[in-house]
Write a structure and sequence with these properties.
Elements lengths: L12 H26 L1 H25 L1 H5 L1 H22 L1
């Protein structure tokens, strides 16, 4: 069993979890940066595939939804509504 250090001995569970998260993040960031630097095209390809897969999935969902498949103007208006809503939420949170 690992004994807590003196500075972390009286902290709550959530404080301890936050410290553990920060320690792990410090270690992972250097490995992550090294991996991206060593294999930039692999990460670019995987990121591109992920973005395309999400858009293609949305397209398939829209095709299966009768109202949206038959009403492209509805898709456009819904898209604008979502953009306005998220923009307003973003401004409110800042």
């Amino acid at each position: 069993m690992v004994k807590p250090s003196d500075q972390h001995q009286h902290e709550t569970f959530f404080e301890h979890a936050k410290h553990v998260e920060q320690d792990i993040e410090k270690k992972v960031v250097t490995v992550q940066q090294n991996a991206v630097q060593k294999f930039p095209f692999l990460f670019l390809g995987l990121s591109t595939f992920g973005g395309v897969a999400v858009f293609y999935g949305f397209e398939k969902i829209i095709d299966r939804t009768p109202y949206l498949a038959d009403n492209p103007l509805g898709i456009l208006l819904a898209g604008f509504f979502v953009l306005v809503l998220t923009g307003a939420l973003y401004r409110k949170l800042n």
